[in-house]
Amino acid sequence: MLQYQAEPLDLAFQALSDPGRRAMIERLSLGPASVSELAKPLPMTLSAVVQHLKVLEEAGLVKSEKVGRVRTCTLEIRTMTRVERWIAERKRFWEQQYDQLEAYLAQAAPKEEDK
């Protein structure tokens, strides 16, 4: 059987595929939050939130720290920057493709005086 080692970017996109985890990321974009603060608006149990946070941590999107009985989570900006850079590169590529298509279509279109 082929062993596949997931790349960091693969893990990040896999983690972001879940709407609950995206909601947690959106909340953490406002600043650090405890696990219970993250769980409050979500329609899931606290243990489910903890499992989702584990996925986000393994993907490198979130880091957490336990002080006393409170676990506080923060965004891991480095991974978010990698995801953003990957998306920006794809966007740039497709914009160039569309610009080339537009130029070609403008050149290939019949001129008004040719009609």
Describe this structure in words.
The structure is a single chain. With 115 residues, this protein is of the alpha+beta class. It has two domains: 8-76, Arc Repressor Mutant, subunit A (Orthogonal Bundle); 79-108. Helices cover 60% and strands 12% of the residues. A three-stranded antiparallel beta sheet has the order 1-3-2. A hairpin with a 2-residue loop joins β2 (62-67) and β3 (70-75). α1 crosses α5 (77-108). The radius of gyration is 22 Å and the shape is elongated. The relative contact order is 0.13. The mean pLDDT is 92.
Outline of the structure:
With 115 residues, the chain is an alpha+beta fold. It has helices spanning 8-16, 19-28, 35-39, 46-58, 77-108; strands at residues 33-34, 62-67, 70-75.
- CATH fold topology of the largest domain: Arc Repressor Mutant, subunit A
Q: Would you list the SSEs in sequence order as H and E?
A: HHEHHEEH
Structural class: alpha+beta
The helix content, as a percent range, equals 55-70%
Strand numbers in spatial order across the main sheet: 1-3-2
Q: What's the CATH C level of the largest domain? A: Mainly Alpha
CATH architecture of the largest domain: Orthogonal Bundle
What does the radius of gyration come to?
A: 22 Å
Number of helices: 5
C-alpha geometry: elongated
Unreliably modeled segments: none
Cα distance spanning the termini:
64 Å
